[in-house]
Amino acid sequence: MTERTLILVKPDGYRRKKMGEILKRVEEKGYDIVAADLRTVSKELLDQHYNELVDKPFYPGLVEYMTSGPILAIVAQGDSVVQGWRTLLGNTQPSKAAPGTIRGDLARDWPGDEVRNIAHGSDSVESAEREIALWFPNLSNN
Length: 142
Ligand code: DAT
Ligand code: MG
Prior knowledge:
The chain is an alpha+beta fold. The chain has helices at about 10-15, 20-30, 45-50, 60-65, 80-90, 100-105, 125-135; strands at about 1-10, 30-40, 70-80, 120. The protein has a 4-stranded antiparallel beta sheet, with helices on both faces. The model has no long low-confidence stretch (mean pLDDT about 95). Bound molecules: 2'-deoxyadenosine-5'-diphosphate and magnesium ion.
């Protein structure tokens, strides 16, 4: 089924010049890019985006990470893109992410750091629609 998902290239991806590599993987899988925008984001946006995580002990570190530089926000569309993109991303923790996945190939755990896993993908069709409405309020639903 055709779905949409929100992809974010996080500030470490921007800093390490991996935007092109990540976009390449979106395109190689055959997904369509419907919107893309480079921006720096506010804590207020992140509080909504990560509404299930705001009370976690690691949340302040996550906000610091996500506000440390530009983010490339992308809406991608395709057959089963939500789960498909999660599979391409790999495990949340780079050291546990399989080789061949984006996080397995391009991200690393650094001692003492919070998890810096280079890219985001919505975890369900419902989250995807919620996140797309938050990041791209002007994008039509059709
Ligand atoms: P994912 O990004 O794989 O969907 P998530 O939604 O559970 O993972 O968490 C969102 C982000 O929060 C994740 O990309 C990195 C950070 N994070 C999650 N669990 C963490 C932890 N135990 N310690 C530090 N950061 C964490
Ligand atoms: Mg998540």
